[in-house]
């Protein structure tokens, strides 16, 4: 009979990051990653509603902690790139940052393993940001907000010049896409314009793709690394010695600390690049 510890050698660490359907309605499958997103979103609504109710003049405790976080996101991430447009877009940036951060942190907690201590193996919870569909959805929202904001800003500029609503809407839409191309003076600018326009158009599509892939790859890789190391512990204990098992456990601890740092870092990078793209779209000098 195969020893119990050898069974872990056949485990698949990818099982910890791939979505698992909980139930289906027709062609629609509700997965554990969707459940985790709903839990995080509901928790954010309750948390920030409580923080904002009867807000004291001098916040302390939990309120002070989140006040500091909100201030850091606003002044350290949003304002350097959005400048005078900061107050308009900072609610979106706050939501984006904390939604990604809380999902990253929630994915580090072994909810399924804790539930499995008293029952069968669970796949009820998941790590939403290790799912490419989730990160692509977040990047898609940034893409829409970026270009919609740039078009609206151009339309407002046309309205300020005295154009009617219909003319300003059409001119603003066309001028926004015209202005994304770097201007080269002279006849060379006319010749190069179609090529530069295609390059900038591809660039505008690559930016959200890079956002989605960066967040997805970093979070997924960290979870697979931790799962792989944890699977080694009982195997090494049975085959070699307890000393190697302790080494693996210490390595898991160090990797967990690194993943905690990555959870904050990736939320920061995603929010910063989102602000950078929106700032380039809404500022006339873009």
By DSSP (H or I, 4+ residues per run), the number of helices equals 9
Mean model confidence by pLDDT: 81
Whole-number total of structural domains: 1
Q: What's the main sheet like?
A: 2 strands, antiparallel
Weakly predicted, low-confidence segments: 1-10
Assembly type of the shown chains? single chain
- Distance between the terminal alpha carbons, to the nearest Å? 68 Å
Which percent range describes the beta-strand content? under 5%
What is the helix content? over 70%
Integer-rounded radius of gyration: 24 Å
Instruction: Give the beta-strand count.
Output: 2
Structural class: mainly alpha
Tell the overall outline.
globular
Q: If strands are numbered along the chain, what order do they take across the biggest sheet?
A: 1-2
Question: Order of SSEs, N→C?
Answer: HEEHHHHHHHH
Folded structure, characterized:
The structure is a single chain. The protein has one domain (20-282). A hairpin with a 2-residue loop joins strand 1 and strand 2 (28-31). Residues 1-10 have low confidence and may be disordered. 26% of the residues are buried. 74% of the residues lie in helices and 3% in strands. It has a two-stranded antiparallel ribbon. It is mainly alpha-helical. It starts with a helix and ends with a helix.
């Amino acid at each position: 009979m195969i020893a119990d510890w050898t069974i872990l050698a056949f485990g698949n660490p990818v099982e910890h990051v791939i979505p698992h359907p909980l139930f289906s309605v027709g062609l629609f499958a509700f997965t554990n990653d969707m459940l985790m997103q709903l839990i995080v979103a509901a928790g954010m609504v309750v948390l920030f509603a409580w923080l904002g109710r009867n807000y004291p003049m001098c916040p302390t405790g939990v309120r002070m902690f989140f006040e500091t976080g909100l201030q850091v996101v606003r002044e350290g991430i949003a304002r350097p790139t959005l400048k005078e447009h900061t107050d308009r877009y900072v609610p979106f940036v706050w939501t984006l940052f904390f939604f990604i951060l809380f999902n990253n942190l929630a994915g580090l907690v072994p909810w399924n393993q804790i539930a499995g201590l008293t029952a069968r193996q669970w796949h009820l919870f998941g790590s939403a940001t290790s799912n490419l569909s989730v990160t692509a959805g977040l990047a898609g929202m940034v893409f829409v907000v970026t270009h919609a904001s740039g078009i609206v800003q151009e339309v407002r500029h046309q309205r300020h010049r005295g154009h009617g609503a219909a003319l300003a809407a059409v001119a603003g839409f066309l001028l926004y896409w015209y202005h994304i191309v770097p201007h080269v003076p002279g006849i060379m600018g006319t010749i190069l314009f179609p090529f530069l326009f295609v390059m900038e158009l591809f660039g505008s599509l690559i930016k959200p793709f890079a956002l989605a892939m960066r967040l997805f790859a970093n979070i997924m890789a960290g979870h697979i690394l931790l799962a792989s190391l944890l699977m080694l512990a009982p195997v090494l204990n049975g085959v070699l010695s307890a000393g190697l098992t302790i080494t693996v456990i210490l390595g898991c601890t160090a990797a967990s600390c690194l993943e905690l740092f990555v959870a904050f870092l990736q939320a920061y990078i995603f929010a910063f690049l989102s602000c950078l793209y929106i700032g380039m779209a809404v500022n006339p000098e873009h």
